[in-house]
Amino acid sequence: xxxxxxxxxxxxxxxxxxxxxxxxxxxxxxxxxxxxxxxxxxxxxxxxxxxxxxxxxxxxxxxxxxxxxxxxxxxxxxxxxxxxxxxxxxxxxxxxxxxxxxxxxxxxxxxxxxxxxxxxxxxxxxxxxxxxxxxxxxxxxxxxxxxxxxxxxxxxxxxxxxxxxxxxxxxxxxxxxxxxxxxxxxxxxxxxxxxxxxxxxxxxxxxxxxxxxxxxxxxxxxxxxxxxxxxxxxxxxxxxxxxxxxxxxxxxxxxxxxxxxxxxxxxxxxxxxxxxxxxxxxxxxxxxxxxxxxxxxxxxxxxxxxxxxxxxxxxxxxxxxxxxxxxxxxxxxxxxxxxxxxxxxxxxxxxxxxxxxxxxxxxxxxxxxxxxxxxxxxxxxxxxxxxxxxxxxxxxxxxxxxxxxxxxxxxxxxxxxxxxxxxxxxxxxxxxxxxxxxxxxxxxxxxxxxxxxxxxxxxxxxxxxxxxxxxxx
Length: 473
Ligand code: TRP
Prior knowledge:
The structure is a single chain. 51% of the residues lie in helices and 11% in strands. The chain has 473 residues and is α/β, with parallel strands linked by helices. The strands form four sheets. Strands 5-6-11-10-7-8-9 form a seven-stranded mixed β-sheet, with helices on both faces. Helix 1 packs antiparallel against helix 2 (37-58), helix 14 crosses helix 16 (317-326) and helix 17 runs antiparallel to helix 21 (430-453). It binds tryptophan (TRP). Tryptophan is lined by residues 162-166, 197, 199, 202, 287, 310, 312, 316.
């Protein structure tokens, strides 16, 4: 039997379109009526799900006022990516679409919430600062419970930030800095403590590396993190290998989590199998522990109810779904989350930058000349093959890696928008676009290298020593 591919669960594209339009109206009326936040969120969630279904069936984004056309069905996303789902977990990121992972779909699959304009506006209002470009441009695009954090903050209830890095090598690339650059901004605008976990234990368990190498990478990576400008009076950076053994409170929380998560659950969440070593199986408890304030008595004076906010790339969400699931069962608040998209590889947004492939990444140690060569040689272009064609038809910024990188690093919104328009219309050539990216990256990386040079071993030691921070809890 053949199935009509414009039908999903019995609904035709037109029915889907009408359902979507009705749901959009519903969301708007709930918002105008200042309805309960939970109801609005639920309605938005359904709206997003319908949009994903719609795109699946029609291959096009839903546009209010533009009903589906009969011809659209042939170029649907199913055929574009072979009908497969994007892969997103802590170890792999892959999609067949040159535009990158379908993030709206991921929000539905993971059950998180979209960072919409309303939330960005609210962050601006509560912090009193212009939202960071990562928020303005949807690079941090998804969240869990951010409204709750802001509600409490408005009532003078503080919170703290937790983020981390797996130190798998000496070499860090620009993609690794995204969560730290954003976390630094959050720390500045909200003036709150920050803990940074370096999971040298995790990398030892997963990679073919010695314990001592992982520990050394942790200290080396700490220098790059410190070079982002964190305030030593407000920031604690720790290696699991060092801190776990020295903090009874931290270890107690690890054990509490271990008692409340079964092998079956972690198998379901992380895909572990019977032949994975037991270190891997219990590791998620170690990534969960820093989300509870009682793991840091020196900072929070034993308080176990300080709300945690975790900025991270969305591939880390499985760890924190588990963490949020156990939190109430062990008497702690659930951590809130802010999720970022991935930083695309030079070769294209089908995957993220990888430190193990030198040509896929711009490293923090690259010279201006290396940056220039890599961008010119390897950055996937959405431009046309010849100048004549390009002038006539224009380029495609949605799949162009140089343009994508500029959306991460160019501060000026108007300048970026002009570049997008000029590239799309063909006024701007690929070579010219790449030159702009090179001229943005070179001073940025040079400045980072300068900052890193000024980070002494003594400073690293200070950041990594358990101690009170400049906050009264
Ligand atoms: N598992 C992460 C990695 O491999 C490191 C990490 C630990 C982390 N805790 C975190 C990342 C909290 C983000 C937020 O890179």
